[in-house]
Amino acid sequence: MLPGTGIERDAMARTFDWIWANWDWPTTWGWDYPMMAMTAARLGKPDLAIDALLMDTPKNVYRPNGHNHQRPGLTIYLPGNGGLLYAVAMMAAGWDGGPATDAPGFPHNGRWVVRWERLRRAP
Length: 123
Prior knowledge:
The protein is mainly alpha-helical. The chain has one domain. The chain has helices spanning 9-22, 32-42, 46-53, 78-93, and strands at 61-62, 68-69. A two-stranded antiparallel sheet has the order 1-2. Helix 2 (32-42) runs antiparallel to helix 3 (46-53) and helix 2 packs parallel to helix 4 (78-93). The longest helix is centred in the last third of the chain and has 16 residues, at 78-93. The relative contact order is 0.18.
């Protein structure tokens, strides 16, 4: 979610790689998946951005009514919902200083057709 400016990209990439490999995903929070997706997109890893959003783990679940379930007693977790919406919008519309391609946060492997309208590039 943070702009990629003023950040040491190598440190950001090393941190991302360490988190991806070492976090205990079932104990994280629902907003961690969109945050990882946005970071992966900014690092030019759109396949991992998708993998983060679709990771099969208990706290990355969305109920039929749209709620991001976390645990009993916390069945509505709006940061997870907002994070998902922001991540997908950023991946579709792009971000300041990002690639000048259409839907830069999605893989360009012929398997994705991304349509969006009236979204602004993220800062």
